[in-house]
């Protein structure tokens, strides 16, 4: 069939990626485009104009999510392609935006070939995925999925004291709750891997089966401060020494659990943080991620099994947050894999260690994600890079998957 042979225009895709990167481009060829900032509003306007040129209808919902829809022959649930246009500060040109551009290029390709899809095709831009201006991340998709309370999210403030609600109203992209997406034939999100696996294995497509579960704990070790020069070693209650022993123990035990487990001690506060004073308190975090929740529960058991006292210091653990593994729709994932096979692209199943809007969307829409390689695994930085050839192949997989869904 002719539809099976459709491919996107690679040169246009490259130009589009660079055109979107112009909104907030940094001196080092990265992008700073915080949610609902001036640059975010400008790129939204550009995205809207690109869609309207194709005859698409563009609507927004009450969280500022954008829906650009190419009408279908039938009025059933749409095929949805989406991601986000906001970035972290000094982020890259591909994270998030590639998924939105993928949807735009799918729509352009259908229009180029005079194809009216059987079902509507909707391209989505989720608001505030990064959480770089307003915490938490994935705010809008979290509200849509019922994970976050809308009223609470509207009152979240940026570092300057502006609330999300104020920024949303000022942006001109505050829409109606009735425009929220509630059903779809499929939701597809193309994203750069943000890790080194695909590049290391010289593969083109990551077939994402899940977003891994995780648990994050805070450990507080309390000792006593004394003079660093006059207190004998055997009389000290050094919170940092105790914390170091705990970290060593955790590394030894967690390292034996499973090769797929990743764990990080990412934040540490040492008090009073004076070189002449023995530390009296250390607070640090332990975060662990794995697709098998049984492994995550083993991690939690190890953390909760830490001694309550060590080197005459007290040890207190508290759970900050956690999430269960989110598995994507097997049928849609199968269509993605078949698309990669049809196109002859190398591929592997892969789990996402990072969070994405798709993990919330998967709770109410049949969803799947596709990864393309990140050069040196870099992301959330100006050095972030995915080759245009890999971007093109990723969008082609999205296009072929969309065509499969439309064929029913």
Radius of gyration: 24 Å
Give the beta-strand count: 15
- What is the N-to-C order of secondary-structure elements (H for helix, E for strand)? HHEEEHEHHHEHEEHEEEHEEEHEHEH
How much is the average pLDDT? 97
CATH homologous superfamily classification of the largest domain = Zn peptidases
Query: What is the number of helices?
Result: 12
- Second-tier CATH architecture of the largest domain: 3-Layer(aba) Sandwich
Q: How many strands, which pairing sense, and closed or not: the largest β-sheet?
A: 9 strands, mixed
What is the level 1 CATH name of the largest domain? Alpha Beta
CATH fold type of the largest domain? Aminopeptidase
Shape: elongated
Helical fraction equals 25-40%
Explain how this protein is built.
The structure is a single chain. With 408 residues, the protein is α+β, with helices and mostly antiparallel strands. The protein has two domains: 2-211 and 325-407, Aminopeptidase (3-Layer(aba) Sandwich); 213-323, Alpha-Beta Plaits (2-Layer Sandwich). Helices cover 33% and strands 22% of the residues. It is built from twelve helices and 15 strands. The strands form two sheets. Strands 1, 2, 3, 4, 5, 6, 13, 14 and 15 form a nine-stranded mixed sheet that branches. Strands 7, 8, 9, 10, 11 and 12 form a six-stranded antiparallel sheet that branches. A hairpin with a 5-residue loop joins strand 1 and strand 2 (66-70). The longest helix is centred in the C-terminal third of the chain and has 20 residues, at 388-407. The radius of gyration is 24 Å and the shape is elongated. The two termini are 14 Å apart. The mean pLDDT is 97.
């Amino acid at each position: 069939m002719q539809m099976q042979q459709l491919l996107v225009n690679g040169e246009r895709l490259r130009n589009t990626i660079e055109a979107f990167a112009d909104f907030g481009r940094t001196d080092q060829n990265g992008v700073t485009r915080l949610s609902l900032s001036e640059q975010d509003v400008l790129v939204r306007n550009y995205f809207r104009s690109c869609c309207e040129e194709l005859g698409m209808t563009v609507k927004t919902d009450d969280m500022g999510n954008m829906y650009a829809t190419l009408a279908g022959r039938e009025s059933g649930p749409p095929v949805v392609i989406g991601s986000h246009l906001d970035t972290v500060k000094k982020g890259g040109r591909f994270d998030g935006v590639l998924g939105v551009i993928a949807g735009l290029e799918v729509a352009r390709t259908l229009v180029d070939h005079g194809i009216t899809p059987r079902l509507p095709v909707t391209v989505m831009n989720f608001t505030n995925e990064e959480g770089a201006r307003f915490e938490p991340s994935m705010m809008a998709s979290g509200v849509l999925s019922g994970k976050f309370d809308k009223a609470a999210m509207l009152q979240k403030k940026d570092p300057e004291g502006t609330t999300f609600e104020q920024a949303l109203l000022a942006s001109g992209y505050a829409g109606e709750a009735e425009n929220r997406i509630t059903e779809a034939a499929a939701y597809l999100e193309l994203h750069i891997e943000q890790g080194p696996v695909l590049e290391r294995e010289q593969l083109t497509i990551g077939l994402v089966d899940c977003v891994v579960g995780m648990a994050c704990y805070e450990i507080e070790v309390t000792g006593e401060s004394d003079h660093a020069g006059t207190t004998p070693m055997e009389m000290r209650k050094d919170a940092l020494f105790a914390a170091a022993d705990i970290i060593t123990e955790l590394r030894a035990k967690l390292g034996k659990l499973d090769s797929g487990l990743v764990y990080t001690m990412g934040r540490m506060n040492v008090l009073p943080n004076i070189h002449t004073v023995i530390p009296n308190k250390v607070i640090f975090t332990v975060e662990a991620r794995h697709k098998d929740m049984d492994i995550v529960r083993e991690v939690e058991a190890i953390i909760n099994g830490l001694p309550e006292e060590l080197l005459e210091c007290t040890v207190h653990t508290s759970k900050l947050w956690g999430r269960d593994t989110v598995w994507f729709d097997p049928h849609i994932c199968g269509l993605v894999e078949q698309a990669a096979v049809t196109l002859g692209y190398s591929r592997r199943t892969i789990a996402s260690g990072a969070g994405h809007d798709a993990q919330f969307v998967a709770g109410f829409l049949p969803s799947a994600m596709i990864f393309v390689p990140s050069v040196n695994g870099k992301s959330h930085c100006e050095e972030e890079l995915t080759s245009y050839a890999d971007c093109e192949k990723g969008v082609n997989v999205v296009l072929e998957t969309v065509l499969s869904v439309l064929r029913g």
